[in-house]
Amino acid sequence: MTQPIIKLKNISYKLENTLILNNISGAIDTGTMTSFIGPSGSGKSTLFRLLNGLKTANSGHIYIQNKSIDTFDPIELRQLVGIVLQEAIMIKGTVYDNLSIPTQLKDETLSEEKAKELLTLVNLDPSILMQDARTLSGGQKQKVSIARTLVNQPTILLLDEITSSLDPVSQKAIESLVKDLHSRLGLTILWITHSIEQAKEVSESIWIMKDGQVIEKSTSHELEQTTNQDVLSFIKGENQ
Amino acid sequence: MTIQTLTLTLLFVIIPLALAYGLKLNIEKDILIATIRSIIQLFIVGYVLQYVFNADHLLFTWLMVALIITAATHNARKKGHKIKGMTWKLVLTYITVETLTQGILLGFNITPMTPQYIIPISGMVIGNAMVLSILFLNRFTDEVDNQFSQIELILSLGGTPKQAIHRQLMTSIKASTIPTIENQKTIGLVQLPGMMSGQIIAGADPIQAVQFQLLIVFLLMTTAVLTSVMIGFLVYPTLFNEKMQLITKDL
Fold first, then answer.
1. N or C: which end of chain A has fewer CB within 10 A?
2. In terms of DSSP bridges, do strands A67-68 and A188-192 run parallel, antiparallel, or are they unpaired?
3. Percentage, residues of chain B above pLDDT 70
4. Cβ-defined contact of A148 to B149 (cutoff 8 Å)
5. What region holds the ABC transporter domain (chain A) (predicted)?
6. Does domain A4-87+158-239 have CATH number 3.40.50.300?
7. Phi, psi (5° rounding) for residue A84?
8. Do A102 and B155 touch (CB under 8 A)?
């Protein structure tokens, strides 16, 4: 039986008296792909920031590989739980400069060969390595962004709405890349999407969030049988 | 200068007042307030300085320096009032800059230990440090606000707070010191510095005035860079908590 790699126990997060996450509990199994969907402001991105250690919950416990998140060194945690942020920020410089950020932070050097391998891994042409990163298309930037996070060799990969600003063709390309990475690297992947169809397409398990709470946890198949009115109205609204 | 000639200088107030009134610029009240305030403030400072110079006691001299530091801190802290411990960070910076510069000047006997030298030079040093800290805080708060995502990105990839904010910190230090450096590049070409002009008008030898002005120019260079670097390195850690999380972007 697969062991949970992430366990959440009664997680709440407040920001200036506004409850962003309200008593969230659940577990994510090792090596699985889980989609998080829900309307804007439902707390999905905040939950991901808690998992990566960019924020800390006001109450509750998070366990990563059975170890309380509070006991991790922040840097160690962020390398173990990699996050790709919604906005694919490219720092001034080449694609190589961007890919080598995680190694530079450790006072190490990323070899050109390794950088090209990473570009190939995310389905990019290695010849763009010395190209100005800011001239890349949105889809290319997002792929470089994924590759940059993979430099740290995370065990868990969080993808925060990485396709939301992309055209449908680029969205499909990222979708298949994520599925490919999941099967090839055996990573545990959590990703936020606004699209139920995308969630069904890529993941084994789907968490639906609303107003800071998880209102449904199910497989793609189970989701079709749901009788939860909140979930049905979200799906209905999403399909319109 | 006699009272009659001083009164005649008010012509330089009447000209902008007349222009403002004629063009309906609606700044007449501000011109009048500025004029009255400058007369009162400068005369008060003049009498206080006269008293301190006559007393010729170091205690009064350093009290004047303390007063200058207090006024500069009060003015500069308005910009960074949301930053934790901003007041003592400014005080510490100004005291360090003052101690270092006066230490060199007095320690090497470059200037004599008299209020006539200590007070005006301290005024220039701390005044410059105040402007520099405001310039730095202005730029730094903008940088953090506009590049919050980039700072968060570096943190998310396993960077320390210092690594995450390095780019914004260096940009702000550089940007705040540029005016001082650029100003010094053109010194004497575009305009004669105020202090040097004052000495020449008072009858000093121009070469000696230049030598003294050079001292001030170099002093202000140290002040500018030291102030920005110190404020920068004192301020950035307060933006993060012990878990290396960016606790605020609203500065």
1. N
2. unpaired
3. 99
4. no
5. 6-236
6. yes
7. -110, 115
8. no
Which residue from B150, B156, B246 is facing A78, i.e. has the nearest CB? B156
| A4-29 residue pLDDT tens | 999 999 999 998 889 999 999 999 99
Contact yes or no for B240/B161 (Cβ under 8 A): yes
> What does chain A come to in residues?
240
Ranges of beta strands (E only) in chain B are none
ipTM, 2 decimals?
0.92
* Euclidean distance between CA atoms B210 and B161, whole angstroms: 45
Instruction: Give CA torsion, residues A21, A26, A29, A30, to 10 deg.
Output: 50
Cα A177 from Cα A146, distance rounded (Å): 10
Query: Which tokens belong to B77?
Result: 């802290």
Q: Which of B153, B163, B249 to mutate to test the interface with A (most CBs of A within 10 A)?
A: B153
Tokens of A133: 């990163």
Q: What SS3 class is residue A205?
A: strand
Q: Residue B149 and residue A85: Cβ atoms within 8 Å?
A: yes
Ranges of each domain in chain A? 4-87+158-239
A239 pLDDT band, cuts 50/70/90, is: low
SS3 of A18, please?
strand
Looking at chain B, how many residues does it have? 251
Beta strands in B49-108 (DSSP E): none
Token pair listed for A78: 């962020």
Which of B155, B167, B245 is closest, CB to CB, to A56? B245
Residue with token string 């599925």? A179
